[in-house]
């Protein structure tokens, strides 16, 4: 028996919803302060209370950075996952360093690029995919102050151009 195209059952809708990307936190400041050269998706090694706090939608990536140690392991520092309110003595430290789960070749590639002057690794987004906590990290190069102003100017010019084109389209239609 063939199924109708476009209609999903309740179970199929639940699966699509479970597989979707559920955003927890975004680091807007990183895109303002750095030029993002490359991005990677990494898993996070978390404790139970950290996962529960994340499911409540509470986290901050603003002061975060990634460090690659001598053992070729990637660690994320400075992200704040607040203490789980219902937790007991098993609660976690809010700003502890957490291990990133990346492939060895990705870690080696990132480590060699970070050795170059002016490059760093910053967290960009924290989200759940298929029930697993993931963090998007970016290889970044710091911007100068004039660079930041230039980016803002360019963005404003693009907005103005888009508004003008939209108004012209409306006039042409009507």
Supply the key terms:
alpha+beta, seven-stranded antiparallel β-sheet, 174 residues, 7 strands, 29% strand, single chain
Straight-line N-to-C gap: 48 Å
The count of DSSP E runs of length 2 or more, i.e. the number of strands, is: 7
The succession of helices and strands, N to C, reads: HEHEHEEEHEEH
Output the radius of gyration: 21 Å
Widest β-sheet, arrangement of strands: 1-6-7-2-5-4-3
Q: What is the count of helical runs?
A: 5
The description of the largest β-sheet is:
7 strands, antiparallel
Report the uncertain regions: none
Structural class: alpha+beta
Shape: globular
Can you give the helix content as a percent range? Answer: 25-40%
% residues in beta strands = 25-35%
The residue-averaged pLDDT reads 84
What do these coordinates show?
With 174 residues, the protein is of the alpha+beta class. 37% of the residues lie in helices and 29% in strands. The termini are far apart.
Provide a short characterization of the protein structure.
This protein is an alpha+beta fold. The protein is 37% helix and 29% strand.
Q: How is the secondary structure organized here?
A:
Elements lengths: L9 H10 L1 E6 L1 H6 E11 L3 H8 L9 E4 L5 E4 L20 E4 L2 H11 L4 E11 L2 E11 L2 H29 L1
Antiparallel strand pairs: 1-6, 2-5, 2-7, 3-4, 4-5, 6-7
């Amino acid at each position: 028996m063939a199924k109708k195209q476009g209609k999903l059952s309740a179970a199929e809708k639940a699966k699509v919803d479970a597989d979707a990307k559920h955003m927890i936190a975004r680091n807007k400041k990183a895109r303002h302060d750095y030029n993002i050269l490359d991005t990677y998706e990494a898993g996070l090694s978390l404790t139970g209370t950290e996962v529960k706090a994340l499911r409540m939608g509470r986290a901050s990536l603003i002061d975060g950075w990634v460090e690659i140690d001598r053992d070729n392991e990637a660690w994320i520092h400075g992200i704040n996952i607040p203490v789980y309110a219902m937790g007991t003595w098993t609660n976690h430290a809010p700003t502890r360093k957490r291990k990133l789960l990346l492939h060895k070749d990705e870690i080696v590639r990132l480590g060699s690029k970070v050795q170059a002057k002016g490059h760093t690794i910053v967290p960009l987004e924290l989200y759940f995919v298929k029930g697993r906590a993931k963090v998007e990290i970016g290889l970044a190069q710091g911007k100068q102050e004039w660079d930041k102003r230039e980016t803002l100017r360019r963005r404003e010019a693009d907005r103005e151009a888009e508004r003008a084109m939209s108004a012209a389209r409306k006039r042409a239609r009507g």
